[in-house]
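Structure ticket #2291
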Amino acid sequence: MRKWRLVLLVAVLGCVVVPWAVAATAALGGKPSTRADRSPAAGVATALSTITGIAISPLLGTGVYGAYSWFTAEEGKRAALPWYGQVAFWLPALLLVGLCAGKDALGATLPPGLKKPLDVLETVENKFSGLVAAGAVVPFTLDSMVKVMFADQGPTGINPALWLSGSGLATLPVANLDFTWLLNVLTIPCAVALFAMVWLSSHAINVLILLSPWGAIDAALKIARTALLGLITIGATLNPWLGATLSLVVIVGAYFLAGWSFRLTVFGSVFCWDFITRRRRVVSPLEKDHAMFAGPGLPGVPVRTYGRLVLGLAGAVEFVYRPWLCLAPKVVALPVDRRGMAVGTGLFFSDILGPDGAVWFSLPPRYRGQEENIARVFLLGGGARPAGLRKAWGVLRELLGGRAPRAEPSGGQVAR
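Resolution: structure written out below.
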C-alpha cells in the first residue's frame, strides 16, 4: 500500500511540475533566461510556494496574498482584483488572525474550560477557509499565473509551434491556438490535491490545540506553524527556487503524515460537531452499536481510527472500521473477559480503558454523562471512574478538604 502511495505522490508532483516545465521551456525557446525573476519557470516556483503557504494557514495565507496583490497593483486596477484582493476581505481576515493569536497568547494563563469554545470556533474557521481556498483561491491563482507567465509569448499565451519544432509537425496551422486551458486542466486538480494534503497536516495542529489541556502548548504549536509559513515566504522572496524547494519538503512531509492527519481531522470534526450542536446521546441498554475512536492501547489499529464498537451474540464485542472511511471494513475482536476494563470519565470526552489502564477507545463528546451506561452495555467490569483532568480536579478537591474521588484503574492516564 505504501508503495502505491509513493507512486501516487510522484505522479501528482509530475502532473504539476512537468507540464509547467515543458511550457516554460517552450516559451523560452529552449534558451536560458537572463532574467530569472520574470521567467515562466520562476512563475512555477512562485506558484508552488504560494499554494503551500496558503495551505499551511488558509486564512492568514489568503489574507496576506490578497493584501500583497492589493498593494502591488496599480491604483486604477485594484477594483479588478479578485475578491480576496479587496480590502473588504483581507483586512477583516488579518484582524481575525490577530484575534486568534491574542486568544492563544492569553490562553496560556487561562483554564482550558474557558478557552475550548474559542478553539472549537477557530477549528471550524480553519475548515471553512481551507475549503474556500481549495475551491476558489488556488484555481484562480494558477489560472492568473499561467496567463501572466506566458503573456509575452504571443497573443494567446503559449505557442505550440515551439513544442512541435523538430518533429515534422511545425508546419501545421496550430501556432495561434490557445492551449492554456489544457495546462489548467492538467495542473489545477493536482495542485488542489497537493493543497489538500498540506492542509490536512496543518489542520491537525488545530485539532491538537483543541485536544490540548494546556495553553502554553497551544501557543508553541501556533508559533511553529507560523514560523514555517514565514520561512517559505521569506525563501520565495529571496529566491523563487528556494521557496519551491522548501515547499517540496513540506509536501513530502505532509504525504507521510497524511493518514495520521486524516484520522485526527475526522476526530476534530466529530468533536466540533458535538460541541456546536450540543449533541447528547442517551444510551439505551438495547443499543449495541456505538461510535468510537481507536486509542493507542488497541493493538493493530492506527490511533484515532473512527469506527463502531458492536456488541454481538453471546457478549462478544468487535470494533468495526473502514480505513480512510471508504475502504473494505476490518474487524478487531475484544477479549471475552472484560472485567478489568472501565470507562475513564474526562473533562471534555471520555475513554474506554484496558485492564492495564491504557486507552483502548475514545468516546465522542456526545457520550458525556453516559459513561455508566456505556460500561453496562459492553460489560466492562470496572464501571465508570474519573480520569485525566477530572481525576486531577478530584485530587485537588481532596487536598482542600473535599470528598475524596473514586479510585481509577492502575496505569497512567492521558489528560482529557
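Closing remark: The two ends are 34 Å apart (CA to CA).
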